[in-house]
Write a structure and sequence with these properties.
The structure holds 2 protein chains of 2 kinds. Chain A contains 4 helices and 4 strands. By secondary structure, chain A is of the alpha+beta class. Chain B is globular. Classes of the chains: A alpha+beta, B alpha+beta.
């Protein structure tokens, strides 16, 4: 719907996606589309993502990462620089 | 005749009880009705999917369950108290239906056995009823603390259960109970026959199928209106969807009920939140009913400085949300100052509680915490700003005419945020309406026969629904752009500081968009068609929002309705609400007594 590139919203890692369709079935905002040929979900409307991250949690293959919008990160006191630093640290 | 109905609709569904909206209220009503009567045929339509729909999808999702009867002896819960209203009448200062509040209070426990049965653990293993024990003092909610002798410092109001997977459990229970569920189906109109609701039309937003439902009773449980104002920090189009309550809720149920003849009330009110940036345990904090004190730059505690202000907490979709707060409008400190939240260290059990409840928030909350480096007991970052969360949820919406929560349209019931009573209150009304409908359906043998008038209504609804699809016009209007414009108008010309010229300008601009832009809405698929229908609902509600605000020439429930030109609460307006009803195709606004004796 928009030409401006939307950076936030769900990102599907197709290396892991098994095409179960949980995300497509359950996204409250209907952000996902469905590729009939490949039998895989697509991110059809990333601009309409509310970043609730339900898809990220329900994906059985952990193939989805919802990127949070910059304004939300900064409002929460998270700088993009600190994210990369954090991700290198193992979770405790 | 039957042939014609089948020509109009892709599918005709006959049911006893049609529930529009599969959120907390709709699910609870369905389960309760099925428990009361196995014979009753129930159909639910839901714009998303049952397990993840509505505002209860771990969004606002603390589940506040009132104390069990045996625990409630600690505080006198009687009708009189309910009327005085620990339950909100105070806060709503003559803007709530006290009779209905009393009924809600008396029946506050109805939903608890059902919740326990489907696995929402309200009681602890040792039989105590806790997780977080909350109090409510006037307008302030909080967490009960204990003194040195182990006595609670405040009387209990309720307990906050874990509520984990609440909506998933409810959705699953509904499907198991044999209720027919239509996911991805949005209501587009309510069909009436001589002032009685006899059915509804709906659109499947995936397949474009057009359904006609025939029903003996209808429950409108479509939630609040989360899309009247923009989230001001987000860029377009994110600011339309990064909202404080579920952005699925556009107010479509309000509009359908209104068009069918239901009366609406208190449409001028807006819910105002303070969003606190970067509180590292805030989302759980909101859910746990923790209250963070707010300070100005001089270190003054605002709660002490403005004792009359409305302070309560709200969990929410945005992790930083903690407060529902009324700035002192004559001294709008909140809008000029840098307000910070309390710098107290989180206690260990608070952190545990946060993890508990953060999992019932949208998973976004946990993700934020993870990105921020986990939950710690470091003092939170601060800075609080005022933003307008949503429309009038909490004090208005569809007007309920009687103790069965029936609207002005016979057999059309309404409950939950659509009437301004969400959360646990919605659960209670879901149960009460279910009980009533089960009896109603027993007495009613047949579905209403549709005549010419009903076919006309269906035909009109269908034409209206599909009009934007593939529309050929010189200038195509994108529904999201139009929505952004309207929400911008609401923010600029209605907002928190209202006055006559600005409100009149809002009405002008909204009507201009209605006449000049809506006819050019053009979309190319079913998903976009859903957005096109939604924006038309948002425009209709925005107009009622502005018009009602114009009529209410006083200020009340600051900052829900503040008029710069009438800055004081006027006793003349006590117990009077602005209502709007469609009469002969036109909106008729009236001033009416809310609690007529």
């Amino acid at each position: 719907m928009y030409n401006v590139k939307i950076n936030y919203g769900p990102k599907i890692d197709y290396r892991y996606c098994n095409g179960c369709g949980m995300c497509y079935q359950n996204c409250p905002l209907d952000v996902y589309g469905w590729d009939e040929e490949k039998k895989m979900p697509t991110v059809a409307y990333p601009g309409e993502c509310s970043c609730c991250c339900l898809c990220e949690v329900m994906c059985p293959e952990m193939a989805i990462d919802v990127e949070l919008p910059l304004h939300a990160l900064l409002d929460f006191g998270i700088t993009p620089a600190s994210i990369s630093k954090y991700e290198k640290t193992p979770l405790t | 005749m039957v042939d014609k109905l089948e020509q109009l609709a892709d599918e005709v569904i006959e049911t006893d009880f049609l529930i529009i909206g599969g959120g907390l209220v709709g699910s609870m009503a369905a389960i309760r009705a099925k428990k009361k009567s196995k014979k009753i045929d129930i159909t639910i339509i839901d714009k998303a999917t049952m397990e993840y729909s509505g505002d209860g999808t771990g969004l606002d999702n603390f589940l506040q369950v009132p104390l069990r009867k045996k625990d409630s002896k600690k505080r006198a819960v009687d009708n009189e108290e309910a009327k005085k209203s620990v339950f909100g009448s105070d806060r709503l200062k003559g803007l709530t239906q006290t009779k209905l509040d009393a009924i809600q209070m008396e029946n506050a426990f109805l939903s608890q056995p059902i919740l326990e049965e489907i696995g929402v653990q309200v009681s602890e293993d040792d039989g105590t009823n806790k997780v977080i024990q909350g109090y409510r003092r006037g307008t302030v909610w909080g967490r009960v603390e204990y003194d040195e002798k182990g006595k609670p410092t405040e009387p209990f109001f309720g307990t906050i259960s874990r509520g984990t997977d609440l909506k998933v459990r409810l959705g699953t229970a509904v499907r198991k109970s044999g209720v027919r569920v239509f996911d991805r189906t949005m209501v587009t109109s309510v069909i009436t026959q001589e002032g009685e609701a006899v059915g509804a039309t709906a659109l499947n937003t995936r397949t474009g199928r057009f359904y006609v439902f025939k029903a003996k009773a209808i429950l409108m449980a479509t939630g609040g209106m989360s899309r009247l104002y923009p989230y001001k920090w987000g860029p377009f189009p994110n600011r339309l969807f990064y909202t404080l309550a579920s952005p699925v809720l556009d107010g479509g149920g309000h509009v359908c009920a209104y068009n069918a003849g239901a009366k609406m009330y208190s449409m001028e009110m807006a819910v105002v939140y303070n969003v606190s940036k970067g509180i590292n345990h805030s989302s759980g904090g909101g859910a746990c009913n923790w209250y963070f004190k707010m300070y100005n730059s001089k270190g003054e505690v605002l709660e002490d400085k403005y004792p009359d202000m409305v302070v309560t907490k709200a969990g929410g979709m945005i992790p930083g949300v903690n407060f529902l707060y009324s700035p002192n409008m004559q001294n709008p400190e909140f809008e000029r100052e840098v307000i910070k939240s309390a710098k107290h260290k989180a206690l260990k059990d608070e952190i545990i509680g946060t993890y508990f409840t953060a999992v019932t928030e949208p998973p976004k909350a946990l993700k934020f915490h993870k990105l921020a480096g986990g939950l710690t007991n470091e003092p939170p970052a601060e800075c609080v700003s005022v933003i307008i969360g949503k429309g009038n949820t909490g004090s208005g919406g569809i007007f309920r005419e009687n103790e069965q929560s029936e609207t002005s349209v016979k057999n059309l019931f309404a409950a939950g945020n659509v009437v301004g009573r969400g959360g646990s209150g919605g659960f209670t009304w879901g149960c009460l309406i279910a009980d009533h409908v089960v009896e109603l359906v027993k007495d009613k043998n047949k579905l209403a026969a549709f005549g010419k008038d009903q076919f006309k209504q269906i035909d009109e609804a269908k034409k209206w629904v599909y009009a934007p699809l593939g529309r050929e016009v010189a200038h195509r209007v994108n529904p999201l752009e139009l929505e952004d414009y309207i929400r911008g108008v609401n923010d600029t010309f209605i907002g928190i500081h209202r006055n006559k010229p600005r409100l009149e300008r809002a009405v002008e601009l909204i009507q201009l968009a209605k006449k000049g832009a809506v006819p050019n809405l053009a979309v190319s698929n079913w998903h976009e068609l859903m957005r096109a229908i939604e924006v038309q609902n948002i425009i209709d509600i925005s107009e009622q929002h502005a018009q009602s605000a114009l009529i209410r020439t006083e200020s009340r429930l600051l900052p829900m309705h503040y008029r710069d030109d009438f800055p004081n609460e006027d006793p003349v307006w006590d117990d009077i609400v602005v209502t709007v009803q469609k009469v002969a195709g036109k909106a008729k606004y009236r001033k009416e007594h809310l609690n007529k004796e």
